[in-house]
Amino acid sequence: MPTSLHDLTFDELRELIVRDGLRPAHSATLWNALHFRADTDLNQRTDFLPPLRKWLDAKMGTEYHTDVLAIASEIFSGDDLTRKYLLKLQDGQEIETVVMGYPGRHTACVSTQAGCAMGCVFCATGQMGFVRHLRPGEIVAQVHHARRILRESGERLRNLVLMGMGEPLHNYDNVMKALGIISDTRGANIGPSKISISTVGVVPGILRMAEENSRYNLAVSLHGSTEAERAALIPANQRWPLSELIAACRTYCEKTERKIFFAWTLIAGVNDTPEHARRLAALLSGIKAHVNLIPLNETAGYEGRESVETAGEVFHRIVQEVGIPCTVRQRRGIDVAAGCGQLKAEKRRRGEKSTL
Ligand code: SF4
């Protein structure tokens, strides 16, 4: 199986080039094409020096390849601010990548796995099950796809969230390697403070981020403030109970001195009452926290319904009153099925050929 050049860090790429007898300077040229310019076809480059061109001609396709993801489907929201792509991996699996526009900035939401093992009941990806982890290059390739899309209109990708298909901390090593490549200042140059990792509460991953003093933002999906309520929405709570999750969050805050963003999807009658808000506020007491309230993206596989606006407003006020910053997250691209897995699920419902 050929190695993807997009799987390699700058140092690994240089080692490989030198091992094959080329001067180290060629690795900088190649890195520039792969990660700064995000070229889709290295054959189109006319400025490679003969040794590098010869090396590529001899090795590409047999020993090495690149990750450039074909577009299987794309849809734009009515306001054209959200663009959602179903991208095809080389083994035929399909993953979702979303590009969202906000005033003055753009954010890409990328996938870290094909499918997901966590099984959150309200999530279209969770309803599909797990297929496989993505390699670093397959995560990097989604970012380059978003950068190319934005470049066409003279815009730049500034922020990245790992909130697409899959649980990032379940694919820890590949995700962290990909983020190292993406944040490299010689390439895509998206700084760690502009990158957010969203987890459903994989406790060992949170503790590892704390231990490594990881510089990326951490977002934890809570959705329930008692063991039973949370387990009903997030089966992973049985493996990593809420009590252990909150303890891990405290450890993370103490070691890194960073705040944690807690996501709470508001589901009518399930977790959106004033009592739920008060319990959440008590649970987060003493943690450097910011709560993001998210309206439910309704899916065909879950009967829960979106909260009414007033319930969200009351919830928001109660959390803020105890001094925890709280925002109601703008939902982007509801008309393009922007909840993770929804485009893929929609394609399956229509009976189009699917690999998941
Ligand atoms: S919400 Fe995230 S962790 Fe849960 S099933 Fe969906 S993709 Fe997986």
Describe this protein's structure.
This protein has 356 residues and is of the alpha/beta class. The chain folds into two domains: 3-65, DNA polymerase, domain 1, CATH 1.10.150; 70-349, TIM Barrel, CATH 3.20.20. Helix content is 36%, strand content 20%. It contains twelve helices and 14 strands. It has helices at residues 10-19, 25-36, 50-59, 124-128, 136-152, 172-182, 203-211, 227-233, 242-256, 274-283, 309-321, 342-349; strands at 3-4, 64-65, 70-76, 82-88, 94-102, 105-109, 113-115, 130-133, 159-162, 195-199, 217-221, 260-266, 289-295, 326-328. Strands 3-4-5-6-9-10-11-12-13-14 form a ten-stranded mixed beta sheet, with helices on one face. Strands 1-2 form a two-stranded parallel sheet. It has a two-stranded antiparallel ribbon with strand order 7-8. The radius of gyration is 21 Å and the shape is elongated. Iron/sulfur cluster binds at residues 116, 118-120, 123, 125-126, 165-167, 200, 340. Iron/sulfur cluster binds next to α4.
Question: Which helices and strands, and how do they pair?
Answer:
Blueprint: E1 3-4, H1 10-19, H2 25-36, H3 50-59, E2 64-65, E3 70-76, E4 82-88, E5 94-102, E6 105-109, E7 113-115, H4 124-128, E8 130-133, H5 136-152, E9 159-162, H6 172-182, E10 195-199, H7 203-211, E11 217-221, H8 227-233, H9 242-256, E12 260-266, H10 274-283, E13 289-295, H11 309-321, E14 326-328, H12 342-349
Parallel strand pairs: 1-2, 6-9, 9-10, 10-11, 11-12, 12-13, 13-14
Antiparallel strand pairs: 3-4, 4-5, 5-6, 7-8
Helix pairs in contact: 1-2, 5-6, 7-9, 10-11
This protein binds iron/sulfur cluster.
Residues 116, 118-120, 123, 125-126, 165-167, 200, 340 line the site of iron/sulfur cluster.
